[in-house]
Amino acid sequence: MRSAFGRLAQELRLKRDMNQKEFSELVGLSISHVSNLEHQRAHLSDDTIGKYIAALDCTGDEAHELRTRAGFSNGIREERNPASPNAPLRVMLDQFGDSISETARRDIQRILERETGQQVSQLRFSSNKRAAAVGKQKSRSKRPSMSATRFVDISLLAEDVRSGICSEMDRVDIGLALERLSLVRKGFDYEVSDRLPVELDGAFAAILGHLEGHTILVEAGRFQSALNGVHFARHVLAHEIAHHFLHPELLKSEVGLYLPVQQLAKNTTSAIKTERQIEQVVDTIEEAEAECFATLFLVPWSAFLKGTEPRYLASDYGEQQGEVERYYRFFRNDALLDAFRQRLWEAGRRKHPIFD
Questions:
Q1: Contact, 74 vs 43, CB < 8 A?
Q2: d(Cα 101, Cα 107) in Å, to the nearest integer?
Q3: For residue 81, what are the CA distances in angstroms to 69, 86, 91, 279?
Q4: pLDDT in tens, 274-320
Q5: CA–CA distance, 253 with 232 (Å, rounded to integer)
Q6: pLDDT tens digits for range 228-260
Q7: Were 209 and a residue from 61, 100, 105, 257 both cysteine, which residue would form a disulfide, CB within 3.0 to 4.6 Å?
Q8: Which residues does residue 206 pair with via DSSP β-bridges, in sequence order?
Q9: Average pLDDT over residues 308-333
């Protein structure tokens, strides 16, 4: 997950209406390097911290807090086993131990001895091992279907999440969406890396469950493609966001658990719309639900009610035309529209255009 330094840097960026791409360009660092710095995978030098302070126009207190957290982040990174859940405790004691009272030190010792049944001097901390990737699912030709009520629930959830990012008429800035969600959602984060783990079998994005929550991992080159408006890259990231909201129970893990990666996420940009394109396989209800959320996060469900042709909706909102066409017909179904009306009526949203 993002370090304390990274959290503060992210908060300061958003206060200044700056996304990670804009920030990286301003400080002259790649997006992947900024991500490495903010996730304790790279050392924060005095020069780098100075770039942060200057680019974010920090106050004296903000600059001091950034430097304090940078020192803590560097300490974690220099630990022999930085992934261990005990590493922050060791670094905290090393960095701030001289500032705490003798009473506090005795209290810490008592807690350790009570929890472990051992003397502090005898404690040995175990490492945090990563689980193997989840096996692939077998393909099925037909996408699993969901009930009308489930479709409505997912549509309204996507609308609610989207409303925290932009207005109904605006195109989602996927980079800003990830920044804001990782700041306001406890247990959610994203990391940009030059290369992803081999467990992901060639995909450029996936979601990982771990002790602290969920992290979306994304390859730097494809992340840049998503920021540049490549529709399928935007869709894949929206799909991974969906799992955080829809399927947290599938991601519960203390040691690192990947959900099966999307076949679509193995495409290169040049392969899309060619015979070399890897087709999307959606063979579980969870994947079907994530696909639904992704499209209705990028294209608000109420936009489907206006009669705009799918190709224009896809172009306006930055989504794949095939996915827009898939859901377009749903909003011509009277039974489904009645399910929307019932849910909105129960929620007190009785002036919604769907009632006109």
A1: yes
A2: 10
A3: 19, 9, 12, 40
A4: 555 556 677 789 999 999 999 999 999 999 999 899 999 999 999 99
A5: 29
A6: 999 999 999 999 999 999 999 988 877 678 777
A7: 257
A8: 217
A9: 94
Amino acid at 37: L
| CA distance linking residue 26 with residue 38, whole number of Å | 16
Residue 66 Cα distances to 15, 19, 132, 161, angstroms = 15, 18, 36, 30
Answer yes or no: are the C-beta atoms of 215 and 131 closer than 8 Å: no
pLDDT digits (tens, 9 = 90+) for 101-128: 777 777 777 787 677 665 544 332 222 2
Rounded CA separation 333/296 (Å): 17
What dihedral do alpha carbons 171, 173, 177, 180 form, nearest 10°? -110
Q: Are 228 and 271 in contact, with CB atoms under 8 Å apart?
A: no
Q: pLDDT averaged over the chain?
A: 84
H-helix or E-strand spanning residue 108 = helix 102-116
Query: Does pTM top 0.90 for this prediction?
Result: no
Give the separation between CA 30 and CA 257, rounded to whole angstroms: 28
Per-residue pLDDT at 161 exceeds 90: yes
**Structural tokens at position 132:** 């193997």
Q: Check if the beta carbon of residue 65 is closer than 8 Å to that of residue 8.
A: yes
Tell me the HSE value of 303 on the side-chain side, using a 13 A CA sphere.
27
User: Is the CB of residue 116 less than 8 Å from the CB of residue 126?
Assistant: no
Q: Are 332 and 322 in contact (CB under 8 A)?
A: no
> Distance between CA atoms of 2 and 189, rounded to whole angstroms?
7
Where residue 216 falls (left for φ over 0; alpha for ψ -120 to 50; beta otherwise) is beta
Around 62, how many Cα atoms within 13 Å sit in the side-chain half-sphere?
A: 17
Distance, CA of 153 to CA of 246 (rounded, Å): 10
Distance CA(12)–CA(18), nearest Å, equals 9
Q: What's the mean pLDDT in 190-212?
A: 87
What tokens does 172 get?
């989602």
